Amino acid sequence: MTTLGETVALIHDWYPPGTAESWDAVGLVAGDPAAPVRKVMVAVDPTEAVAREAAAWDADLLVVHHPLFLTGVHSVAATTPKGRALAALTSAGCGLLTAHTNADHAVGGVSEALATALGMSRLRPIRPAPTEPLDVLVAFVPTDAAPPVRAAVAEAGAGAIGDYDHCTFTTAGQGRFRPLPGADPTIGEVGSLAVVEEERIEVVLPRRLRAQVVAAMRAAHPYEEPAHSLIELASPGSLEAGTGRVGEVEPTTLRGFLETVADALPATAQGVRALGAPDRVVRRVAVCGGSGDFLLDELASAPVDVYLTSDLKHHRALDFAEAAGPEGPALVDVAHWAAESTWLPVLAGRLAAALGDTVEARVSETRTDPWDLRV
């Protein structure tokens, strides 16, 4: 039996809540972590209609992209739309989990799903997610004492790179020093210059482990005062996770790219609208699932042919056009719900693959795009 808590932990592993924006509200909204989970429904919006669909299907968990409660509330009574949505879920014993900006940035998340749906390849984030700060410890050790020092720093958490551990680099050389009065040297004599065959050990470590790794090195080192240094590394950012995605498509025109977009996304009253010359060549594309207005300024001068996102406003689009000029990127605006719905089958597929026959995952059939007609 798979529990709600185990399912939430799995989804949080894919889309860590700690990567969500500070203003966001993500995580488990309702449900007992000890309750069994046999059916999971995924949707963009936690509307009352979606909640009732989940309840009618006997879902044990509804996973949504947009938060039901993004700001504080004073009541969840069933006299409001949000209250009725929550009541429909809780009365049916269905939990509710939100994965919002944490799912936007993640590998296998919303922007990546949108890019993949559009046939983009060689994907990279527009703004790479920050990676954990790293240091390099450099220590100088007598040759015969180098193996235990290397082992000690590895056991303390240094030298882990990807799927490898105990990663160090060593070069041979000579150490010189003269013990002064008051010293208790392991090698050499007070007042005399000592020359020792030594090894320079270099090892990378998470900055948060700095104190314990240095302490482990000192404990294993034979010298009274080990010569060592710490170098802070500049973070290049993640190559996979982060805001939006940029990638390549088969060369086409802007008009041809728009046709690809229209075919890939569910049809909406808004449709697909663009700013740019219809016959311009399109090879490199940037996308941001959801409202990507905040990237307009930097992408106006970026080396891309098109930027695709949602919820663009009149004045911001005009500013982008003027900043980009005729040689800069074209701009494409699609419906918010349509862009983010590309993530739903990805999430359902991941759940089915991870949980096997114990849990059935399904994409909601309720359309939550708010616009119905265009005349």
TrEMBL record:
<dbReference type="InterPro" id="IPR017221">
    <property type="entry name" value="DUF34/NIF3_bac"/>
</dbReference>
<comment type="similarity">
    <text>Belongs to the GTP cyclohydrolase I type 2/NIF3 family.</text>
</comment>
<dbReference type="InterPro" id="IPR002678">
    <property type="entry name" value="DUF34/NIF3"/>
</dbReference>
<dbReference type="Pfam" id="PF01784">
    <property type="entry name" value="DUF34_NIF3"/>
</dbReference>
<dbReference type="InterPro" id="IPR036069">
    <property type="entry name" value="DUF34/NIF3_sf"/>
</dbReference>
<dbReference type="InterPro" id="IPR015867">
    <property type="entry name" value="N-reg_PII/ATP_PRibTrfase_C"/>
</dbReference>
<comment type="subunit">
    <text>Homohexamer.</text>
</comment>
<protein>
    <recommendedName>
        <fullName>GTP cyclohydrolase 1 type 2 homolog</fullName>
    </recommendedName>
</protein>
<keyword id="KW-0479">Metal-binding</keyword>
